[in-house]
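ENTRY TYPE: paired fold submission
RECORD: A
CONTENT: sequence, then structure tokens
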Amino acid sequence: MLMMRSEYYEILSKEREEIRKRLKKEKDTKVKLKLALLNMVASGMSVKEAASFLGIKLRSAYKWVNNWMEEGYEGMLAKKRGGRPPKLSKEQKEELRRLLKQKEYWTTEEINELINEKFGVEYKKSRLYELLRELGLKLSKPYILDVKRPENAEEILAERLEKVLKVLKDAEYNLKDIFIGFFDASSPQLSPNTTRLWSFKKIKIRRITSRQRERANTFGFYTLNGNSVVNFQERSKKENVIEVLRAIREENGDKPIVIIIDNFSSHKAGDVQREAEKLGIHLVFLPPYSPDLNPIEFVWKSLKRLISEVFIGSVEDLKSFIKEKITDLFRNRGYAKGWFEKFSSIFQKIFGHYFCNLLAE
């Protein structure tokens, strides 16, 4: 059953009070996530927007909404399913979990060998993946951290963020009065590395392969509760940074703006910091060599993957493509979900509630 946005809102808005009460009392994290999505839809967000914010699959979001409409709260609870019996007993799974926690990471082959050696069982890859996800493991490429990155980088950023938020709290601002965002520059090029694509035959894509430095110097401001900004500049000097900060202020009215930003020399220039102060923009600098703490880095990564899938013949066309695609990427709140979860205690400590909860209301 698929409805238009207005139909979902019309139905769920009438039950919003019950949804909010259940959300407040719920202890099960999985059910709480479902109720949070329902609360967003009942508040006027589309199912797609709510799913994007929470970082869940759209298919799952529609399923949860329909389950509520058909069964109410009971539809949010996990149902026991039949199927073939597991190869490992519950006790053996717990033993396997304990063994796997003895190392920071494993290859698939190592885990299969471990299960075979300890329990005399061999899994097919698909069934092994199901088992490992059931145990709470995730399969992903390691994120490479620079050896110069401080081991307590998160603590350093938390202290800097807390300091700025306390200043705003003392100035009698509430959390809902403050825009939080992430700033960075990137230079996508006309000949990026090509992403892997599925095909029945060898793929050939037209590219500009000459060694031209054909790039679009792009500044971005990614925010969840304000207006995001994309701005093209010829260079990345302090004058260019100041111009971008003014554009951010122009797009976001008079409210205070907190920006997470890296330590590039032009970002830390005295003129830039003075202009930011004049504009009511509070710069929170990342610890050195810590780009992983700036969610906009993941936006750039997605953008470059999109660029690699098409042929773009000129820098002007590249800028047009970037402006179109990054607008959609900036709408995806999922890029910053992990960041706000990591630093949620700072917002709770100073303002008494979580930033993500404010967006869900």
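RECORD: B
CONTENT: sequence, then structure tokens
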Amino acid sequence: MRSGPPASVLFLSVACALVALILVRPDVGGAMPPFAKATGQACSHCHISPFGGGPLTPSGEAFREALQSATPPVDPLLLVTPGQRILHAAAYLIHILFGVGWVGIFLYLFLPAALRHRDFPSPPRGYLRQMWYGAAVVIVAGPFLAYMKVLFIPGLLTSRFGLLLVLKILAVLCLLATTVFITWYIVPYAGRRYRQLSKEIDGGRPVELTTGDLSLFTGRGKRKALAAADGVIYDLTGRNLWRHGIHPGGHHAGQDLSDSFRDAPHGPDVLERVPRAGRLLGGRGEKSNVTRWYYRAIYLGTAACLVILAVVALWRL
């Protein structure tokens, strides 16, 4: 039984919420940073909001009417056609929706697991697909949006906006690198390691596992369910109270449950009826090199996500 809604449902919920926010916000007056640059006025000169966007002031209405009937010497780059606006808005919406899904995997799944020192070297395929859907859309839509910005804003790269854009692009590339590392190194390694250890367990050989190895045996899908207590690893596969790797009370297979077993309502004698699969190396503090690199990738990807969010926030200042 699932412990929570699937990733697709969570992603769809976030996407619907973002669409709703965009649809109910006030109509944008079509403001662009070059308007302020060309007129020498602050955004609040033409917009009621000091941050720009939204309803226009009387001065803004007059400026918009002037643009609609503009002839040289007004800079033609300030004139944005309706088709360009629609195309830019559609690309921006798709960029945001899938970007949220990509960034959300790191901020709401990988990072909390790492902070709780829970090894998670083999993410479910649904999360991997969500990451790559987001990455693919951002990689395709991002350059298009950057091109539109360069087209609309002369001298973009020398402006504050342009410098922040370059910083965001670097952060996206860093996030892409960590996604590639997790997908093409960590996940294949975890699959090979699981098959190797599972074969040893089926052969009746006691195994010695690190906490990273143990976390591969979650009981989800067709995987075995293992758990450790006081340095001993127990095979919980196929037991009624451990279906899908979850025990009543919220305990999960693939973890060191020493503290949980001590606080359980039943005595330690219940473990005597469970087959032993081996022992846990070095207790809960022992981690493999792959697990350490996995943590580093998570922290690097999370830092890139925070830089991206900071850039978006600074654009509004």
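NOTES ON RECORD B: The chain has two domains: 7-186+306-315, 211-286. Residues 160-202 form the longest helix (43 residues).
STATUS: closed
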